[in-house]
């Protein structure tokens, strides 16, 4: 017979987690089928050309439903992912994908040239290119040897 160690802390945390889910409604089946807010995932990386790129997954959205704004060194992506109008709401049995309004904001470094920012939406992915200012890009200086 295997011995099982009694861990009162783990048991209390498990009980607390279950109680929290019970009271916030996430433990019920209805909560899984309700539409809620969602936040699109993003990747942020730097290219070899020394541009900053923000890539956001926005599946099943139209370009007209996405807005990109830059104000005071803050880039904001907002929009609304709408549920399909082809299917009546009462026909749904389960809705697990997120729908509704979203907003993501990112602080931009002062090295980004806000006047040259560009955005492209293709295949459900929004790609925003943020070029660095020329003076902030790395440059090579030749060193001359004195004779």
Walk me through what this model shows.
The protein is an alpha+beta fold. The chain has two helices and seven strands. It has a four-stranded antiparallel sheet, with no helix packed on it. Strands 3-4-5 form a three-stranded antiparallel sheet, with no helix packed on it. β1 and β2 form a beta hairpin. The relative contact order is 0.19. About 7% of the residues have low confidence.
Map the helices and strands:
Layout: H1 8-24, H2 29-33, E1 42-46, E2 51-57, E3 66-71, E4 74-81, E5 100-107, E6 118-122, E7 125-131
Antiparallel strand pairs: 1-2, 2-7, 3-4, 4-5, 6-7
Share of helix, binned: 10-25%
Q: Specify the overall morphology.
A: flat
Major β-sheet annotation: 4 strands, antiparallel
The SSE order reads HHEEEEEEE
Mean pLDDT across all amino acids: 82
> Could you tell me the strand content as a percent range?
25-35%
Would you tell me the structural class of the helices and strands? alpha+beta
Q: Total helix count?
A: 2
Which stretches are poorly predicted, pLDDT < 50 over at least 5 residues? 26-36
Widest sheet: strand order?
Answer: 1-2-7-6
Q: Strand tally, please?
A: 7
């Amino acid at each position: 017979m295997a011995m099982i160690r009694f861990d009162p802390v783990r048991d209390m945390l498990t009980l607390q987690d279950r109680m929290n889910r019970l009271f916030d409604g996430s433990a019920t089946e209805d909560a899984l089928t309700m539409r809620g807010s969602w936040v699109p995932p993003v990747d942020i990386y730097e290219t070899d050309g020394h541009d900053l790129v923000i890539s956001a997954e926005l599946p099943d959205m139209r370009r007209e439903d996405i807005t990109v704004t830059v104000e005071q060194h803050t880039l904001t992506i907002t929009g609304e992912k709408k549920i399909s109008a082809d299917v009546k709401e009462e026909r749904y049995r389960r809705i697990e994908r997120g729908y509704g309004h979203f907003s993501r904001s990112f602080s931009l470094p002062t090295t980004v040239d806000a006047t040259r920012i560009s955005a492209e939406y293709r295949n459900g992915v929004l790609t925003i290119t943020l070029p660095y200012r020329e003076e902030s890009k790395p440059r090579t200086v030749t060193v001359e040897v004195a004779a």
